[in-house]
Amino acid sequence: MSVRVYIPADAAAKSIGADAVAAAVRDEAMRLGLAIEIVRTGSRGLLWLEPMVEIETARGRVAYGVVRVSDVANLFAAGFLDGAEHPLSLGLVDDILYLRAQTRLTFARVGVNDPLSFEAYVASGGMMGLARAQAISTDAILDEMTISGLRGRGGAGFPAAIKWRTVRDAQSARKYVVINADEGDSGTFADRMLMEGDPFLIIEGMAIGALAVGADRGVIYIRSEYPHAIHVMNEALRIARREKLLGAHFDVEVRVGAGAYVCGEETALLESIEGKRGQVRAKPPLPAHRGLFGRPTLVHNVLTIAAAPTILANGGKAYGDLGVGRSRGTKPVQLAGNVKRGGLYELPFGVTLRELVYDIGGGTASGRPLRAVQVGGPLGAYFPEHLLDTPLDYEAMAKAGGLLGHGGVVVFDDGVDMARQARFAFEFCATESCGKCTPCRIGSTRGAETLDKIVAGVEVEKNMALVDDLLTLMTDASLCALGGLTPLPVGSALKHFPEDFIRAPKCAAAE
Amino acid sequence: MSADVFNADDAERIIAAQMEQARVFYGEDAKGAAPLLPILHALQHAFGHVPPQAQPIIAHALNISQAEVRGVVSFYHDFKTEPAARAVIKLCRAEACQARGCERIAAHLESAYGLKTGARSHDGHISLESVYCLGNCALGPTALLGDDLIGMIDEARADALVAQARR
């Protein structure tokens, strides 16, 4: 009987040689005349251990990592097909501390299954959520969603059940389910990993949503920077049609973005699908009333809709029992940047930044002291060391002057220049602004210019006041989160790291 | 069809195919600009860029103004109206890659190969673009070459990347 060898085909694992390792394993087995079956999976998310190779043994799956092509012959010689000891051995996968400490609901199958095996999906509990949804009334589906306490995982944290009810109650000949996979925030990759690692979960979630609200068409809008995810999702849609999960009653297509960050904003995303410039719409009307092509539309982030199958299968209560306060369930946190053990960790809400960055992440990758942690992407605040005891939940992050966003946590060591990071935030906003509202379009450029003056020592006090005023204006008067939240990274850098801004000796102009 | 050489028949065929696909999926909602993004992607895939000569054809087919087509082409960073270099290296310059040293890699590409952001290498075969996040934030610095994602780029891996781009 052939031995099963699992090797990730996730883009992150590929980026550091997983394909070459898979080829080397295949060749070496052939050379030795050993029968193996290589299964390409998603990634477990322990990215610092990639490429990680797992062997199926009688005891369970045994992992090896970091595996390089040059290690392969040696691993075979040591008997890794029997799960033998080796310097790269990580032991039984289920015993790896960093996996055991997680609560993997949304990511339960990622890294475990062949993502495009519908059979494996069903065998590991897939389709149970939809089956339950089909067996109960739409009212009962909405009740489960309400009890679960699920809130939008894209960043805004809006209660999902309210959206579902609004779309369901809207009258229209056609309704849509639109999934926002325009994951543009630096430091986030959970949507990508889920699309590449368990695409049927997203499709099942969309089917449940469509059933509940009465939609017959769905769209997954994926950014063009994710070619692997686009490929896997398209393949999964083809299989889902063959398996009758999709069909005339409800069908889904992938729309590919075109490099515009602002299209991650839900109304800009809808404009983009409609073939227009990705400009933000004024709300109201809400997309739930008039969304795609003016039809009632359920717009969700990938992770939000992917929670629906679990909630329906196990009941809303089981899901809602996890978490803290008004942040219920689990949050896939992405630990990135200059950190030793970067990766994806699905945890109940409430873990603190310190636990995440030090206990799980092991501190900086460079070994230098940590200086700042940015939470929530380019529009999230920079936290200094002394605020690391802030728990990761929607309310606590907001109270500390930040936002949880899509759950990206980016670590910087003491080499970071916070004035440069603040300037970058303005610059990014200027480049990516859709141009519809003035505070964002003009404010971002004026902000960058003014920061340059401050760093150059020109009329520092006066310009500081000007930036402060500008941040207030952008916060209050921008049409969407791009202009409205750029003040978070800028303001937090100014507040917590003022020494980086006041460096130059005062210039003549200041006299 | 050969890349970069505009051919009106090919363009019309591509446009018609995308319009039909949108009509099948969206029904009556597929009128107007609805198929525009897939059309632009398909044209760029076929010709290496979105040829300006194709824009009036698109406008006519979709029954929208040329200004609307041009507005969309110019809005999205992905769409180019001039032929691209044979290989395009997209280097991530966003925060997580900054924290892992992407600026050092950008400096190396410029000093060793004359690869400046938005410009071509000395031999004209390679161009360098900045992108903001490729979703490989724990294993940066990261670049995309075609559909190949390359992570943990140091100077040696940057050299290998350029060599791969030249092939």
Describe it.
The complex is a heterodimer of chains A (511) and B (167). Chain A is an alpha/beta fold. Chain A contains 21 helices and 16 strands. Chain A has helices spanning 11-14, 18-32, 72-78, 97-100, 118-123, 128-135, 138-148, 160-169, 190-197, 199-213, 227-242, 266-273, 302-314, 316-320, 353-360, 394-399, 418-432, 438-456, 460-477, 481-485, 487-496, and strands at 3-8, 36-41, 53-57, 60-64, 89-92, 176-181, 217-222, 251-256, 297-301, 323-324, 327-328, 330-337, 343-348, 370-375, 382-384, 408-413. Chain A has a five-stranded mixed sheet, with helices on one face. Chain A has a five-stranded mixed sheet with strand order 13-12-16-14-15. In chain A, helix 9 (190-197) crosses helix 10 (199-213) and helix 10 crosses helix 13. The mean pLDDT of chain A is 95. Chain B is α+β, with helices and mostly antiparallel strands and 167 residues long. A four-stranded mixed sheet of chain B has the order 2-1-3-4. In chain B, a hairpin with a 2-residue loop joins strand 3 (143-145) and strand 4 (148-150). The longest helix of chain B has 19 residues, at 8-26. Chain B starts with 7 loop residues before the first helix and ends with a helix. The model of chain B has no long low-confidence stretch (mean pLDDT 94). The chains are: A alpha/beta (511), B alpha+beta (167). At the A-B interface, helix 1, helix 11, strand 8, strand 12 and strand 16 of A face helix 2, helix 4, helix 5 and strand 4 of B.
